Amino acid sequence: MSRMQSELEGRLDNLLSRIAAETQEIKELEQQLTDGQILANEALQRELEEVISGLQEYLRGLREQAHCSQQQVHTLQAENLSLQLHLEEAQRHCTQLEDLARSHTQSMSVQQGELFALRMEVQALRERQVQSNRHQAQLEVELQQLREELNQKVPLGQEDVHRLPAQLSGPAEERQEDESRSEASRPNLTLPRCWHQCSGTIQQTRTTMAHKHSQEHMSRPQARLEARLEARLDRDQVEPFEEPEEEVQRSQSRHRLLQNSLLRSQSDAHQRSLGHLNRKLRQLSRSTHNIDQLTVEQLKFTIELLRALNQLLHTQESVDGDAHWDQDLRSPKAEPSEARRLKLDRVRSRTGTRTGTGAEDGGRWFVHAALSGGRCVCDHSEAEKKRLQLETRELRHTLRQHRSVMKLCDEVECVEKTLLKRRAELREADRKLLEAQSCIHTSRVQASEAQRDAAVLRLRGEGKQRARELQEEVEQLRRMRKEEGQMLRQVEEELRSREEELQQLDREIQTARDTLADLLSDCVEAQGHLDSLSTQVRSHLYLSQSLDPVLMEMGRRG
């Protein structure tokens, strides 16, 4: 009980330390939050402080209850000690009766223990037999494999054995030939003996090498079999210890994987939302950048067009000025030419040369007749033609320029229209940008609010989780208290049963005492009866002894 109480106190201290650490963390978080979040955080802090105060009060109540239960445990322990002393005293009085009962119970228990031990041994022998059968089956399979390997290797060994005599027969034949030669020549008798000894030693070494080779072939499968058996035994011994550890590690790894997957899914969802917002912002920034570039290019193009138009207008103004100046110069020369033409017509009408031939002849005559005045007129007409050709060329050039200017004006109008459209598009783009910025601002505000809500929810979740943990710990304490109460009840019931047993034993002892007293009284009575009988017997013996001589005398007389 003292251990349970110390464990409960340690848990309560841990809870209080956790609560203090949590309060410090909450205060630090409150200091880090902005001014706008202070009110909400203060409300949450108040709620958490209320929860913590309620939990602290509840823990104080639990401590008081634990203290009361501890006092009750001490009282029960004192009562238990007193009852144990009473039991010891009662047991001292009941030792004689218990010895008699124990003698019978010990004999029965010894017999039952022997039977149980025999059963366990039989069961263990059966299990060992099953295991031995399994190992025997495995060993038989391995022996079959080894036999097959040996059967495969035996013919090879036999072939080696068959080869050995052939190999030995060669040097034997050579030895015989040498002996025959030596006998024929007989140079010395020691040489064949040495040769015989050497061949014997060679044959012995060859036989020993073959025997060693065969022993190695036989020992290798035996060593393999022993190694396999040792490996199997090691595996059988290690597997039952490794399986629960592997299961625990697997369960822990699965739990960690689930937690990591949940955290990754949450972080991935948050990152996806942020990435989507960042993509939208990038697209908007790119669109705005592209629109700005287009507007800049269009403005550059319009500026270049306006510069070209200004140059064309400047050139046109200069051409118009030159044309007016030429007309002013040519106007006094045109009047005499026209007067001269009228005079020529009058002359032709007077001479009657109105037909083409007469006109030609008259013209020729006029030209030839008036050489002095006619040369200058022809010269003036040729110069006027040249000037007229130049003027026509210039007019054509000016018309072309005018047409190009008109085209440029049309293009300028188109450009102005496009500029107006672009300005409208830019206004719409600005409006969209403002809307996007407002949306981004609202999304940022919403994201910040969502983060705040998430932080608040996390804090609430942590608070709820801690409250749940505290509730679980409280429930565990209640369960422990219930278990302790049940244990105390069981102890009380056991004490009551022991008291009842002691009362029964007292009754039995009392009955035994009564029976002993009855037996003693019976024994006393029997002793008195025996004493009376002994006195009677003695008296009878005395009488018989006293009557024996009388009877002897009576017999003699008779």
Give structural notes.
The protein is an all-alpha fold and 558 residues long. The protein has a domain of 144 residues. Helix 4 packs antiparallel against helix 6 and helix 5 crosses helix 6. The longest helix is centred in the last third of the chain and has 187 residues. The two termini are 102 Å apart. 2% of the residues are buried.
Helix content: over 70%
Distance between the termini: 102 Å
How would you spell out the order of helices and strands? HHHHHH
- Strand-residue proportion: under 5%
Number of helices: 6
Kindly name the structural category: mainly alpha
What sort of overall outline do the alpha carbons produce when their principal axes are compared? elongated
Q: What is the C-alpha radius of gyration, as a whole number of Å?
A: 70 Å
Residue ranges: pLDDT <50 for 5 or more in a row?
A: 185-192, 237-244, 328-337, 350-378
The total count of strands amounts to 0
How confident is the prediction overall: mean pLDDT?
A: 66
The quaternary structure here is single chain
Largest sheet: none
Biased composition (Basic and acidic residues): 172-184
Region (Disordered): 154-188, 235-255
Protein name: Centriolin
Coiled coil: 5-149, 460-522
